[in-house]
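ok, trying the design again with the full structure, not the truncated one.
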């Protein structure tokens, strides 16, 4: 991925992206045993995917290994983490090469 650049301009520090997506907290069953960094949920450490998950359906999902960014705005599932399942199963899986 572009590691914090857009149109060849630095938007976010590459160091901050690396630091903020390192697992800092292991959550319990209430949060589906997911892992959390600084403002990012770490979805899969092996592939480097992470997401910002907000209330009411807002999600930014990033998978640098697959060069994929998905943004979702709107409520469509009963729990916030179901949005990640939706992205991985309905979008990411269908984009496999």
């Amino acid at each position: 991925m572009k590691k914090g650049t857009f149109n060849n301009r630095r938007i976010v520090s590459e160091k901050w992206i690396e630091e903020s997506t390192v697992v800092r907290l292991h959550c319990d069953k209430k949060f589906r045993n997911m892992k959390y960094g600084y403002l990012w949920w770490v979805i899969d450490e092996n592939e480097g995917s992470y997401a910002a998950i907000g209330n009411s359906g807002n999600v930014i999902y990033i998978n640098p290994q697959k060069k994929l960014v998905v943004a979702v705005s709107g409520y469509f599932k009963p729990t916030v983490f179901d949005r990640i399942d939706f992205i991985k199963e309905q979008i990411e899986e269908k984009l496999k090469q």
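Keeping the full-length input from now on. The helical segments are 14-20, 82-92.
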